[in-house]
Amino acid sequence: MSRKALWVAAASVLIGMLVLGLKTLAWWVTGSVALLSDALESIINVAASAAALIALNVSARPADSNHQYGHHKAEYLSAVLEGVLVVVAAFTIMREAYSGLLDPQLPDQPVKGMLLNGAATVINAVWCVLLLRVGKAYRSPALVADGKHVLTDVVTSVGVLAGFILVPVTGWPQLDPLIAGLVALNVLWTGWGLMKESVSGLMDEAASPDVVARIRELVSIHAAGALEAHDLRTRHAGRMTFVEFHLVVPGSMTVAAAHDICDRIEHAFEQDMDDTVITIHVEPEGEAKHSGVVVL
Ligand code: ZN
Ligand code: ZN
Predict the structure, then answer these.
(1) 183 and 156 in contact (C-beta within 8 Å)?
(2) CA of 195 to the centre of ligand 1 (A)
(3) What distance lies between CA 50 and its chain's CA centroid?
(4) Which helix or strand (DSSP H or E) is residue 276 part of?
(5) Ligand nearest to the CA of 262
(6) Closest to 181 measured CA to CA, from 56, 73, 41, 284
(7) Rounded to the nearest whole angstrom, what is the distance from the C-alpha of residue 283 to the centroid of ligand 2?
(8) Which residues contact 138 (CB under 8 A, 6 or more apart)?
(9) What does the mean pLDDT of the chain come to?
(10) From the CA of 232, which ligand is nearest?
């Protein structure tokens, strides 16, 4: 992981805090529940950026004697933490929206609030475009995910602002907590997505079918001399994919020759697929299952 990506992730935390501060100020000035909900949503962004920073730092660490398969799952742990924060934020917003509905009030100083929240949204929008660009350039899923989070936040802010302008125009104070309720639902939805992603990672989800197809193809092309490969298993850990399978060779083949085949396959994976770790179990032909990847 390049140091630049780490700097970008750190900057994202700081910018998230600045945006959170502006949005909190906008709520403070107006007392609007909708603006409060937007500010609370920004807490998730700060948490998400912090999680991305931690994930980049920890998961990039090489394997050590204590974590011999690497530190890739750190990403999921931070995502779980993030998911918990998201749910807390959503319920806080719902509670505020409920009390707002019981005692609806027109916002104070709506123009000031709009300007503050608008400024925060503009900063967020610019940063979001930058993050997505840099994330793609460095091929960093953590940065791209962070950028997508900020994008959701920008979209919500635009909706909140549009609704907020309507409150003094229509003179209908209930609109304010209603917008907040919608934001809460959106926040919950984001949290659900985060949880789902991290849980499938923690549960060792297999590689997607197209990746598995590519793995089978690579094995069959580069395993000349072997008879077949079977019991192929894959699992994900962060950006890493762990691959293991049995390779059946003629019983009379020397260990050195069988090892050459394994090295050839491993080399092909290094060339073709980033971030894979392969373990090959060599077997004599009596173990053949005549299924799986048959090498001709
Ligand atoms: Zn076997
Ligand atoms: Zn070896």
Answers:
(1) yes
(2) 35
(3) 12
(4) strand 276-284
(5) 2
(6) 41
(7) 15
(8) 2, 4, 5
(9) 85
(10) 1
Q: Which domains does the chain have, with CATH numbers?
A: 3-202 (1.20.1510.10), 209-294 (3.30.70.1350)
pTM attached to this predicted model: 0.66
* H or E element in which residue 181 lies: helix 175-202
pLDDT above 70 coverage of the chain, percent: 96
Write out pLDDT tens, residues 269-294.
999 988 899 999 999 988 777 777 66
Spatial strand order in the sheet of 276-284: 276-284, 240-249, 228-237, 293-294
Dig out the tokens for 155 from the structure: 């979209």
Nearest CA among 177, 258, 262, 188 for reference residue 218: 262
- 96-106 per-position pLDDT tens digit: 888 888 888 78
Identify which ligand lies nearest to the alpha carbon of 260: 2
Question: Is 249 in contact with 226 (CB distance < 8 Å)?
Answer: yes
Pairing of strands 276-284, 228-237: unpaired
Q: 186-217: per-residue pLDDT in tens? A: 888 877 877 777 777 788 888 889 999 999 99
